Amino acid sequence: MEDRESVTAADFIVIKALENGVTIIGLTRGRDTKFHHSEKLDKGEIMIAQFTEHTSAMKIRGRALVMTKYGSLEAGE
């Protein structure tokens, strides 16, 4: 398991809602992947997030711009 310092230094992603009602769902690490947190964004709102010792994946539902150090992509239609 990573120490706390390396987890808090993990890369961030930026999610910008392009429509009202964009949902971001955090999924857990471990044997069983489960939902552990969700947020709802309205058009123009931005969320800055990172993967942690508890979060291994994120699901984004709705039109959103996702920006990472690797580039940007658009979720939704």
Q: How would you portray this structure in words?
A:
Oligomer of 11 identical subunits arranged in doughnut-like structure. InterPro entries: MtrB, Trp_RNA-bd_attenuator-like_dom, Trp_RNA-bd_attenuator_dom. Keywords: RNA-binding, Transcription, Transcription regulation. One of its GO terms (molecular function) is RNA binding. It comes from Neomoorella thermoacetica. This protein has 77 residues and is mostly beta strands. It has a single domain (4-75), classed as Immunoglobulin-like, CATH 2.60.40. Helices cover 6% and strands 55% of the residues. The chain is built from one helix and seven strands, in the order H-E-E-E-E-E-E-E. The strands form two sheets. Strands 4-1-6-7 form a four-stranded antiparallel sheet, with no helix packed on it. Strands 3-2-5 form a three-stranded antiparallel sheet, with no helix packed on it. Strand 2 and strand 3 (35-41) form a beta hairpin. The mean pLDDT is 85.
Note the topology.
Elements: H1 4-8, E1 12-17, E2 22-28, E3 35-41, E4 46-50, E5 55-61, E6 64-68, E7 71-75
Antiparallel strand pairs: 1-4, 1-6, 2-3, 2-5, 6-7
What is the structure about, briefly put?
Helix content is 6%, strand content 55%. It is mainly beta.
- What's the number of domains? 1
Q: How would you describe the shape?
A: globular
Strand fraction equals over 45%
How many angstroms separate the termini? 37 Å
CATH level-3 fold name: Immunoglobulin-like
- The residue fraction in helices comes out at under 10%
Average pLDDT figure: 85
Structural class: mainly beta
Biggest beta sheet summary: 4 strands, antiparallel
Keywords: RNA-binding, Transcription, Transcription regulation
Protein name: Transcription attenuation protein MtrB
Pfam family, one: TrpBP
Subunit structure: Oligomer of 11 identical subunits arranged in doughnut-like structure.
